[in-house]
Write a structure and sequence with these properties.
The chain is of the alpha/beta class. The chain has two domains: 150 residues, Aspartate Aminotransferase, domain 1 (Alpha-Beta Complex), CATH 3.90.1150.10; 243 residues, 3-Layer(aba) Sandwich (Aspartate Aminotransferase, domain 2), CATH 3.40.640. The protein contains 15 helices and 14 strands. α6 packs parallel to α7. The chain binds pyridoxal-5'-phosphate.
């Protein structure tokens, strides 16, 4: 029996991520990991969860333990609309779909838009899970270079022109505007407007993925694409980084023609996001869990970010060719080594020294880049950050 004969072309195109395999190494005891994208467990609002679970079991078990509507719990969708309105987005529950976190949002987007070989535009680098979702529906991600202000509009324009010229019109533009994963960069408002102008002129849909938006430690909020152009923007949000990832709860907000199709696609996947988790989350939001939790999370991560930036400055003082981004929020920064270094090759040496990162090559959709690495600063303790950066600098120095 040849198992390959059984699979669809779509399944045959799915690859086990080499990086995710590598990252298993980082779970070894003693390793300081800057690799994953995990929130710090200290930020989980355990007391709020406990009170909400008690309430839901006592008062709402008949609905919370039952199937629910695919669109999501109507009370929760009202809550989500309120969260978005506070952020300057004029929307209502009718334009919101509750998803099994934003990874499902990405999967549904890929499912409803791609025929095999269809293209979309992404940042280069961009979120690995986005690339995996697009690839699993045989979509082809075409990367557009970023700088310290995110996706470069001129490069976006050129890439679109090239694709149009080849008869490969992109189905959408995938952007992570705030504290991008992996680069940590944020697109300033003026540049958002330029990107929007390009999208509006060509009638391209923008998929705005913004899981870190509420985690800002310095600088000013920049308007969301959703608030500027609700007709052509689908936004994906999640509670994973701002409250807890274990509920697998997120939401999509956008034009009705997109949301309607996503609802149909979701019905075939899981019928509905667990109503129990939705009911608990609603009860937590009513009790102010999000605002109270965010206040502490921002304080904690802001301090860790500062410690990582200061440690990098100290430890790499003798290597001025090493550069890194200075994120105003989120969980990650992006470190770039001199050209003679290869962060794929360096990875094993770093693990031997008991420090781990994600090699940058994982995040590039269509070109090779081995000079960079992603560093997470939310998970390790403050002491570990100081020690981990010291180890990392030693590995880089010895390899130079
Ligand atoms: C940019 C981006 N999008 C989506 C996700 C998926 O998050 P979740 O499915 O937990 O909402 C992540 C997780 O790290 C991410 O960084």
């Amino acid at each position: 029996m040849n198992s390959q004969d059984y699979f669809s072309d779509r399944a045959l195109g799915m690859k086990r991520s080499v990086i995710r395999e590598l990252l298993k190494l980082t779970a070894n005891p003693g390793i300081i990991s800057f690799a994953g994208g995990l929130p710090a467990p200290a930020t989980f609002p355990v007391d709020f969860v406990e009170a909400a679970v008690d309430h839901v079991i006592e008062e709402e078990h008949e609905t919370a333990l039952q199937y629910g509507p695919t669109e999501g719990d109507v009370r929760l969708r009202e809550d989500l609309a309120t969260i978005m309105r506070i952020d300057g987005i004029k929307t209502s529950k009718d334009h919101i779909l509750v998803t099994t976190a934003s990874q499902q949002g990405l999967d549904l987007v890929a499912k409803i838009f791609f025929n095999p070989g269809d293209t979309c535009i992404t940042g280069s680098p961009t979120y690995l899970g986005g690339l995996q979702a697009f690839n699993s529906y045989q979509g082809v991600s075409i990367g557009v270079e970023l700088d310290d202000d995110g996706m470069i509009p001129e490069k976006l324009q050129k890439t679109i022109q090239r694709l149009e010229g080849e008869g490969r019109r992109p189905k959408f533009i995938y952007i992570i505007p705030d504290f991008q994963n992996p680069a940590g960069v944020t697109i300033p408002e003026s540049r958002r407007k330029e990107i929007l102008e390009i999208a509006q002129k060509g009638e391209y849909l923008i998929v705005e993925d913004t899981p870190y938006r509420q985690l800002r430690y310095s600088g000013e909020n920049q308007s969301t694409f959703q608030s500027m152009a609700p007709d052509i923007v689908l936004s994906l949000y999640t509670f994973s980084k701002i409250m807890l990832p274990g509920f697998r709860l997120g939401w999509a907000c956008g034009p009705d023609w997109v949301i309607d199709k996503m609802i149909m696609a979701k019905q075939a996947v899981d019928l509905c996001t667990p109503p129990f988790n939705q009911a608990i989350t609603h009860a937590m939001l009513v009790n102010g869990a999000l605002e109270k939790g965010l206040e502490n999370t921002i304080k904690l991560y802001s301090k860790k970010r500062t410690i990582m930036l200061e440690s990098l400055k100290t430890e790499f003082a003798d290597m001025p060719e090493v550069k890194w981004t200075k994120p105003e929020g989120g969980l990650f920064l992006w470190l770039t080594l001199p050209e003679n270094q290869n962060t794929d090759d360096l990875f094993q040496k770093a693990v031997d020294e008991k420090v781990a990162y994600v090699p940058g090559s994982a995040f590039f959709p269509d070109n090779d880049n081995f000079q960079s690495m992603r560093l997470n600063f939310s998970y390790a303790s403050e002491e570990q950050i100081v020690e981990g950066v010291k180890r990392l600098a030693r590995v880089v120095r010895e390899n130079n």
